[in-house]
Amino acid sequence: MLKKLTGLALVGAIALSVPVTAFAETAQGASSVVTKSSSFHPGKQLLVDKAQSLGITTDGKTNEQIKAEIKSADRLKADIQAAVLAQLQTKASKLGINSDGKTSKELRSALQAAALTKLQEKAAKVGVSTDSLTAKQLRAALAKAKEAKKVEQINKRAAKLGISTEGKTTEQVFAEVENALKVKWEKKAHKQ
User: Fold this and answer.
1) Which of 43, 58, 187, 191 is a good FRET partner for 27, with 20 to 30 A between their CA atoms?
2) CA-to-CA distance for 185 and 169, rounded, in angstroms?
3) Domain residue limits, the chain
4) What is the maximum alpha-carbon separation in the chain?
5) pLDDT by residue for the chain (192 residues), tens digit each?
6) pTM for the structure as a whole
Protein backbone atom coordinates (compact mmCIF):
# COMPACT_ATOMS: atom_id res chain seq x y z
CA MET A 1 0.00 0.00 0.00
CA LEU A 2 2.81 2.38 0.89
CA LYS A 3 4.58 1.61 -2.42
CA LYS A 4 1.42 2.41 -4.38
CA LEU A 5 0.97 5.73 -2.63
CA THR A 6 4.62 6.65 -3.19
CA GLY A 7 4.33 5.75 -6.88
CA LEU A 8 1.18 7.83 -7.29
CA ALA A 9 2.83 10.78 -5.56
CA LEU A 10 5.83 10.58 -7.89
CA VAL A 11 3.63 10.37 -10.97
CA GLY A 12 1.61 13.34 -9.78
CA ALA A 13 4.74 15.40 -9.13
CA ILE A 14 6.07 14.62 -12.58
CA ALA A 15 2.75 15.39 -14.22
CA LEU A 16 2.54 18.74 -12.45
CA SER A 17 6.09 19.76 -13.30
CA VAL A 18 5.80 19.16 -17.07
CA PRO A 19 3.14 21.81 -17.82
CA VAL A 20 4.97 24.34 -15.68
CA THR A 21 8.21 23.76 -17.55
CA ALA A 22 6.48 24.02 -20.91
CA PHE A 23 4.68 27.18 -19.82
CA ALA A 24 7.92 28.72 -18.57
CA GLU A 25 9.65 27.93 -21.85
CA THR A 26 6.95 29.53 -23.98
CA ALA A 27 6.65 32.53 -21.72
CA GLN A 28 10.37 33.29 -21.59
CA GLY A 29 11.33 32.77 -25.22
CA ALA A 30 8.10 32.66 -27.18
CA SER A 31 9.64 33.84 -30.44
CA SER A 32 12.49 31.32 -30.37
CA VAL A 33 10.13 28.40 -29.75
CA VAL A 34 7.89 29.45 -32.62
CA THR A 35 10.79 29.72 -35.07
CA LYS A 36 12.13 26.35 -34.00
CA SER A 37 8.83 24.61 -34.53
CA SER A 38 8.22 26.29 -37.88
CA SER A 39 11.70 25.50 -39.29
CA PHE A 40 11.84 21.89 -38.13
CA HIS A 41 9.65 19.48 -40.06
CA PRO A 42 10.17 15.83 -39.11
CA GLY A 43 8.86 14.61 -42.47
CA LYS A 44 11.22 16.92 -44.38
CA GLN A 45 14.11 15.84 -42.17
CA LEU A 46 13.43 12.17 -42.92
CA LEU A 47 13.40 12.96 -46.65
CA VAL A 48 16.63 14.93 -46.36
CA ASP A 49 18.31 12.12 -44.40
CA LYS A 50 17.26 9.48 -46.93
CA ALA A 51 18.31 11.70 -49.84
CA GLN A 52 21.72 12.31 -48.28
CA SER A 53 22.21 8.58 -47.67
CA LEU A 54 21.58 8.05 -51.39
CA GLY A 55 23.93 10.90 -52.33
CA ILE A 56 21.22 13.30 -53.52
CA THR A 57 21.63 17.02 -52.86
CA THR A 58 18.59 18.67 -51.29
CA ASP A 59 19.50 22.36 -51.35
CA GLY A 60 16.63 24.50 -52.61
CA LYS A 61 14.41 21.56 -53.55
CA THR A 62 10.82 20.96 -52.58
CA ASN A 63 9.58 17.81 -50.87
CA GLU A 64 8.06 16.60 -54.14
CA GLN A 65 11.35 17.04 -56.02
CA ILE A 66 13.26 15.20 -53.29
CA LYS A 67 10.68 12.39 -53.28
CA ALA A 68 10.91 12.06 -57.08
CA GLU A 69 14.71 11.86 -56.97
CA ILE A 70 14.57 9.31 -54.15
CA LYS A 71 12.12 7.18 -56.15
CA SER A 72 14.34 7.28 -59.24
CA ALA A 73 17.40 6.44 -57.13
CA ASP A 74 15.54 3.53 -55.53
CA ARG A 75 14.46 2.28 -58.97
CA LEU A 76 18.03 2.54 -60.23
CA LYS A 77 19.29 0.69 -57.17
CA ALA A 78 16.72 -2.07 -57.70
CA ASP A 79 17.66 -2.32 -61.40
CA ILE A 80 21.33 -2.62 -60.51
CA GLN A 81 20.59 -5.31 -57.93
CA ALA A 82 18.51 -7.22 -60.48
CA ALA A 83 21.32 -6.99 -63.06
CA VAL A 84 23.88 -8.19 -60.51
CA LEU A 85 21.61 -11.07 -59.52
CA ALA A 86 21.16 -12.03 -63.18
CA GLN A 87 24.90 -11.95 -63.72
CA LEU A 88 25.50 -14.11 -60.65
CA GLN A 89 22.83 -16.55 -61.81
CA THR A 90 24.54 -16.81 -65.19
CA LYS A 91 27.88 -17.56 -63.55
CA ALA A 92 26.23 -20.07 -61.25
CA SER A 93 24.54 -21.88 -64.13
CA LYS A 94 27.87 -22.09 -65.99
CA LEU A 95 29.38 -23.77 -62.93
CA GLY A 96 26.39 -26.04 -62.46
CA ILE A 97 25.11 -24.35 -59.30
CA ASN A 98 21.36 -24.23 -58.75
CA SER A 99 20.36 -20.58 -58.37
CA ASP A 100 16.60 -20.95 -57.91
CA GLY A 101 15.33 -18.79 -55.06
CA LYS A 102 18.80 -17.75 -53.89
CA THR A 103 19.76 -14.21 -53.02
CA SER A 104 22.83 -12.43 -54.34
CA LYS A 105 24.65 -13.06 -51.07
CA GLU A 106 23.88 -16.79 -51.17
CA LEU A 107 24.97 -17.01 -54.81
CA ARG A 108 28.22 -15.20 -54.06
CA SER A 109 29.05 -17.61 -51.27
CA ALA A 110 28.18 -20.61 -53.49
CA LEU A 111 30.38 -19.21 -56.29
CA GLN A 112 33.25 -18.65 -53.85
CA ALA A 113 32.92 -22.21 -52.60
CA ALA A 114 32.96 -23.51 -56.20
CA ALA A 115 36.02 -21.39 -57.01
CA LEU A 116 37.80 -22.72 -53.92
CA THR A 117 36.96 -26.29 -54.93
CA LYS A 118 38.32 -25.63 -58.42
CA LEU A 119 41.53 -24.17 -56.96
CA GLN A 120 41.91 -27.17 -54.67
CA GLU A 121 41.58 -29.50 -57.67
CA LYS A 122 44.25 -27.57 -59.59
CA ALA A 123 46.52 -27.61 -56.55
CA ALA A 124 46.05 -31.36 -56.12
CA LYS A 125 47.02 -31.94 -59.78
CA VAL A 126 50.19 -29.91 -59.33
CA GLY A 127 50.98 -31.58 -56.02
CA VAL A 128 50.39 -28.64 -53.70
CA SER A 129 48.93 -29.44 -50.28
CA THR A 130 45.49 -27.86 -49.86
CA ASP A 131 45.00 -28.46 -46.13
CA SER A 132 43.27 -25.44 -44.52
CA LEU A 133 44.45 -23.00 -47.17
CA THR A 134 42.33 -20.06 -48.27
CA ALA A 135 41.71 -19.25 -51.92
CA LYS A 136 44.32 -16.48 -51.79
CA GLN A 137 46.91 -18.82 -50.29
CA LEU A 138 46.08 -21.49 -52.88
CA ARG A 139 46.57 -19.00 -55.72
CA ALA A 140 49.93 -17.99 -54.28
CA ALA A 141 50.97 -21.64 -53.88
CA LEU A 142 49.89 -22.39 -57.47
CA ALA A 143 51.84 -19.41 -58.77
CA LYS A 144 54.89 -20.53 -56.81
CA ALA A 145 54.55 -24.09 -58.16
CA LYS A 146 54.21 -22.75 -61.71
CA GLU A 147 57.31 -20.62 -61.27
CA ALA A 148 59.23 -23.60 -59.85
CA LYS A 149 58.20 -25.71 -62.85
CA LYS A 150 59.33 -22.96 -65.20
CA VAL A 151 62.70 -22.72 -63.44
CA GLU A 152 63.07 -26.50 -63.60
CA GLN A 153 62.38 -26.54 -67.34
CA ILE A 154 64.83 -23.72 -67.97
CA ASN A 155 67.50 -25.51 -65.93
CA LYS A 156 66.90 -28.77 -67.86
CA ARG A 157 67.18 -26.91 -71.15
CA ALA A 158 70.36 -25.19 -69.97
CA ALA A 159 71.88 -28.54 -68.91
CA LYS A 160 70.96 -30.03 -72.28
CA LEU A 161 72.71 -27.14 -74.06
CA GLY A 162 75.73 -27.35 -71.71
CA ILE A 163 75.12 -24.05 -69.91
CA SER A 164 76.10 -23.77 -66.23
CA THR A 165 73.36 -22.47 -63.91
CA GLU A 166 75.36 -22.02 -60.71
CA GLY A 167 75.19 -18.53 -59.19
CA LYS A 168 72.90 -17.23 -61.90
CA THR A 169 69.35 -15.99 -61.65
CA THR A 170 66.58 -17.60 -63.64
CA GLU A 171 66.46 -14.60 -65.98
CA GLN A 172 70.21 -14.84 -66.68
CA VAL A 173 69.96 -18.57 -67.40
CA PHE A 174 66.92 -17.96 -69.63
CA ALA A 175 68.81 -15.27 -71.59
CA GLU A 176 71.77 -17.60 -72.09
CA VAL A 177 69.46 -20.42 -73.21
CA GLU A 178 67.79 -18.08 -75.70
CA ASN A 179 71.16 -16.95 -77.08
CA ALA A 180 72.39 -20.53 -77.37
CA LEU A 181 69.20 -21.56 -79.18
CA LYS A 182 69.49 -18.60 -81.57
CA VAL A 183 73.05 -19.57 -82.40
CA LYS A 184 71.99 -23.19 -82.89
CA TRP A 185 69.13 -22.20 -85.20
CA GLU A 186 71.36 -19.85 -87.20
CA LYS A 187 73.89 -22.65 -87.73
CA LYS A 188 71.07 -24.95 -88.79
CA ALA A 189 69.73 -22.31 -91.21
CA HIS A 190 73.21 -21.79 -92.78
CA LYS A 191 73.65 -25.54 -93.32
CA GLN A 192 70.52 -25.73 -95.43
Assistant:
1) 43
2) 24
3) 56-126, 143-191
4) 122
5) 666 666 666 656 565 555 544 444 455 554 444 434 445 567 778 888 888 888 888 888 888 888 888 899 889 989 999 999 999 999 888 888 888 888 889 999 999 888 888 888 888 888 888 788 888 888 888 888 888 888 888 888 888 888 888 888 888 888 888 888 888 888 888 877
6) 0.49
